[in-house]
Design brief:
This protein has 367 residues and is α/β, with parallel strands linked by helices. 43% of the residues lie in helices and 23% in strands. It has a 6-stranded antiparallel sheet, with helices on one face.
């Protein structure tokens, strides 16, 4: 999928933006706080029906304004045009439309516009709680598999209902039985898909990591789940009395963990800032490669200020990688033109260059 044009009104600090894009490489430069990340976030919003950084939609409306609108005009691999509209007014529900027809459920939209974003916020994958790493797995699989997204939604509904019963200290065994059966059915589907994902992702991850840093360091991901050892239904029934006492569900795929390893040790304990950044970039490029191989259309790739804290050699390798044919449409930001000009020198395809200042984005017409 190619994003040909975007129209933005009152999204964060972007008052009014109308831009046309290159089908290959789009570079944005400007100082921090000018709006580069906000532009990428608007593109992200069109793919996932939410901001990459702020889950409270109304807080993404420009200060002192009552609404925001984002419209994206895309082209599918077969040349079919796609128009995606998102509008949000304060104190009202957001609207999401595809070709002027509103979605009944936002989940129907996920996967239509596959996208991978690499940004400084990715450090939360390493430093944050296990919920961040589960979300990472879920985001990849949900873009490819509607059944997975359905299973995830239904699992979370059943989990919420069981937790409500536990807090009420209910002893309605028949209701517990029904909810635990649902948790088991959907939980096993989720476990199986997450396990398959990690098995496919690790070889690609190692490949990209080696390409970027040319070192003997090995990277790995270890998926840890209670479902690997026992039946979830059995575990839920066994834990029921204790769960009533503490008021929440202690077993299930919502407790899964994804260990991120460098040379067999947790990277959050042993990795320098540069090593952690390289690790995350390689991981996200592996995610991109997997989505490109298995999806119906090539994902968009958003690279937000990724060169900070990397040595010159690693920067050069990343620049070389993103210029390769396997990557489709790319949007990349940096605080100055040095790295962007290097990237532009390495590619033999179309590009567009933009300057960002105080929420205004100006195309630069350069050969």
């Amino acid at each position: 999928m190619i994003l040909k044009r975007i129209s933005i009104l009152n999204y964060k600090n972007l008052e009014q933006v109308e831009l046309s894009f290159s089908p290959k490489l789009n570079c944005f430069f400007g100082q921090n706080g000018m709006g580069k990340t906000n532009l990428l976030d608007a593109i992200y919003f069109l793919s996932f029906c939410k901001s990459s950084g702020n889950p409270i939609d109304s807080q993404n409306i420009r200060h002192d304004q009552e609404f925001f609108v984002i419209q994206g005009f895309y082209e599918a691999p077969d040349g079919t045009p796609e128009e995606i509209y998102c509008g949000m007014k304060r104190r009202q529900k957001k609207q999401f439309k595809r070709n002027k027809k509103e979605y009944k459920r936002l989940s129907e939209h996920i996967g239509l516009l596959p996208l991978v974003m690499i940004s400084p916020a990715d450090t939360e994958l390493i430093q944050g709680g296990s919920e961040e790493r589960r979300r990472f797995m879920d985001l990849i699989i949900s873009q490819q598999d509607k059944n997975y997204l359905h299973a995830l939604i239904q699992y979370n509904k059943a989990l919420l209902q069981r937790n409500t019963l536990l807090k009420e200290q209910s002893h309605d065994t028949s209701l517990f039985d029904v909810l635990e059966m649902q948790l088991t059915m959907y939980g096993e589907q989720i476990f199986s898909k997450r396990k398959q994902l990690i098995e496919k992702l690790v070889p690609l991850f190692n490949q990209f990591h080696q390409q970027i840093c040319h070192s003997a360091e090995s990277v790995d991901l270890t998926y840890i789940s209670q479902l690997a050892e026992t039946s979830l239904e059995e575990k839920l029934r066994k834990n029921r009395e204790r769960d009533v006492l503490i008021g929440y569900t202690t077993a299930g795929i919502h407790k899964d963990e994804l260990e991120m390893l460098l040379d067999g040790s947790l990277i959050r304990r042993v990795g320098s800032q540069g090593q952690q950044k390289t690790y995350l970039i390689a991981l996200k490029l592996a995610q991109y490669s997997l989505l490109a191989q298995e999806g119906a259309s090539t994902p968009l790739l958003l690279l937000d200020d990724i060169f900070d804290k990397l040595d010159a050699e690693r920067v050069a390798q990343i620049i070389h990688l993103v210029g390769e044919e396997q990557f489709g449409q790319i949007f990349i930001t940096d605080t100055n033109r040095k790295y962007l000009d290097k990237i532009l020198e390495t590619i033999n395809s179309d590009f567009a260059l933009f300057e960002v200042e105080q929420g205004c984005i100006k195309p630069l017409n350069e050969a």
